[in-house]
């Protein structure tokens, strides 16, 4: 992954999405040779020279001030995730320290695992930015049972299962939205941690082996993933749609705890009860290395 090429493709793709009308500019003539805004239009909206913006879009963000980056983000009407990604790319190309402190490499603390275990009514797991599931409670393992086959590599990786396992498409019934979310999260992490060799290796593997991943990756979409709904097609309880909340762990930089829930007296809630009963009978979490928080 080249940071400079990522900058070029990201800015060009965002520029292509904004029409002159959306930017409040007159559209002169009917034969525009580029989709969206021209470079000179972005420069005008951002209050910088055309030559300077062209240099920035070519990947030379090193030295660009926070104010200039914010002006470009405003001109391109970037959302919160896109704006953060632009700043991450600028930090990466300038080799400035990232906002996040150094990421934890040791095992998860017992206190964190106790919190995870205490969530007996909610499927929950802890992941890193590569979407490795580092620790999972019993109900979470039951929900993600198709990922936890005996021959699956550890730690389990959601993206690798989704794109490379023959059961991935069936497990995620809302396939297009699920693909968009997974790839956007990995693209966001690539901006935050360009030196992560594990992430680089995972993306290289997925780009090489999955045409669907390759197509989605080229769109340069990013997103924040704090709350929402997610659907699964589980082999025991059938299709189930759950609410989720994702919470970063301040003491464990780069790690996120995700928990699923369902409102009482709904089909999803009933399905969770069935899942819990099945998990209890199969004792899904016993002596599993992922429960120990191994990385």
Automatic annotation (TrEMBL):
Matching Pfam families: HTH_31, MLTR_LBD
Domain of life: Bacteria
Full protein name: Transcriptional regulator
Domain HTH cro/C1-type: from-to ranges: 36-83
InterPro entries membership: Cro/C1-type_HTH (IPR001387), Lambda_DNA-bd_dom_sf (IPR010982), MLTR_LBD (IPR041413)
Native source species: Streptomyces capoamus
PROSITE patterns (UniProt xref): HTH_CROC1
GO MF term (any one): DNA binding
């Amino acid at each position: 992954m080249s940071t400079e090429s990522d900058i070029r493709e990201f800015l060009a793709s965002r520029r292509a999405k904004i029409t002159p009308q959306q930017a409040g500019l007159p559209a002169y003539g009917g034969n525009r040779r580029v989709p969206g805004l021209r470079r000179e239009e972005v420069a005008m909206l951002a209050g910088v020279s055309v030559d300077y913006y062209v240099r920035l879009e070519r990947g030379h963000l090193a030295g660009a001030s926070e104010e200039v980056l914010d002006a470009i983000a405003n001109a391109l009407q970037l959302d919160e995730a896109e704006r953060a990604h632009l700043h991450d790319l600028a930090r990466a190309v300038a080799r400035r320290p990232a906002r996040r402190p150094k990421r934890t490499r040791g095992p998860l603390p017992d206190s964190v695992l106790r919190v995870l275990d205490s969530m007996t009514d909610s499927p929950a797991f802890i992941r890193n930015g590569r979407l490795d599931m580092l620790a999972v409670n019993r109900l979470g393992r039951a929900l993600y049972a198709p990922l936890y086959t005996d021959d699956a590599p550890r730690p389990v990786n959601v993206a690798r299962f989704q794109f490379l396992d023959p059961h991935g498409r069936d497990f995620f019934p809302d396939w297009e939205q699920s693909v968009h979310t997974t790839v956007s999260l990995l693209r966001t992490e690539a901006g935050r941690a360009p030196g992560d060799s594990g992430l680089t290796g995972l993306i290289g593997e997925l780009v090489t082996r999955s045409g669907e991943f390759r197509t989605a990756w080229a769109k340069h979409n990013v997103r924040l993933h704090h709350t929402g709904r997610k659907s699964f097609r589980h082999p025991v309880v059938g299709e189930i749609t759950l609410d989720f909340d994702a919470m970063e762990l301040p003491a464990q930089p780069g790690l996120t705890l995700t928990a699923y829930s369902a409102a009482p007296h709904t089909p999803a809630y009933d399905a969770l009860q069935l899942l819990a009963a099945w998990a209890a009978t199969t004792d899904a979490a016993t002596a599993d290395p992922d429960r120990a928080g191994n990385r």
